[in-house]
């Protein structure tokens, strides 16, 4: 009976070793599948990124002309307004200086309005 028991124990040990091998293979398979899935996801992400970058560059190049046209129009308008301001300054400079000097130099001495009421 002890030989049958030892033979049964031996069979159980072998079955346990087989089960451990199967579990180890399953773990390795799972790890490999995870690595493959990550690599595939990274490839997909990189392809998506390249597609979106190309789409952005196309959009940017298509709208770059609009921006430069708008900028040149704004620059022309600014230059025209600056020229107008410079011309206005040149035409009115003498009159403004004269008005300022008249106000500063020509003073009419008179009593303050509050002093008049108190008297």
UniProtKB/TrEMBL annotation:
Name recorded for this polypeptide: V-type proton ATPase subunit G
Indicate yes or no for the key word Ion transport: yes
Organism name:
Sistotremastrum niveocremeum HHB9708
Record-level GO cellular component terms: vacuolar proton-transporting V-type ATPase, V1 domain
Q: Which UniProt keywords apply?
A: Coiled coil, Hydrogen ion transport, Ion transport, Transport
Q: Does the keyword Coiled coil apply?
A: yes
Q: Where are the transmembrane segments?
A: none
Q: Which GO terms describe its molecular function?
A: ATP hydrolysis activity; proton-transporting ATPase activity, rotational mechanism
Q: What's this chain's function?
A: Subunit of the V1 complex of vacuolar(H+)-ATPase (V-ATPase), a multisubunit enzyme composed of a peripheral complex (V1) that hydrolyzes ATP and a membrane integral complex (V0) that translocates protons. V-ATPase is responsible for acidifying and maintaining the pH of intracellular compartments and in some cell types, is targeted to the plasma membrane, where it is responsible for acidifying the extracellular environment.
Q: How does this polypeptide assemble, per the annotation? A: V-ATPase is a heteromultimeric enzyme made up of two complexes: the ATP-hydrolytic V1 complex and the proton translocation V0 complex.
């Amino acid at each position: 009976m002890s030989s049958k028991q030892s033979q049964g124990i031996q069979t159980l040990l072998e079955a346990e070793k087989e089960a451990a091998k199967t579990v180890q293979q399953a773990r390795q398979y799972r790890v490999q599948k995870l690595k493959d899935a990550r690599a595939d996801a990274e490839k997909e992400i990189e392809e998506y990124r390249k597609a979106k970058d190309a789409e952005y560059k196309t959009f940017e190049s298509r709208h770059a002309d609009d921006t430069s046209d708008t900028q040149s129009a704004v620059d022309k308008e600014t230059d025209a307004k600056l020229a107008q301001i410079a011309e206005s300054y040149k035409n009115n400079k003498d009159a403004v200086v004269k008005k300022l000097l008249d106000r500063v130099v020509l003073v009419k001495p008179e009593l303050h309005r509050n002093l008049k009421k108190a008297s």
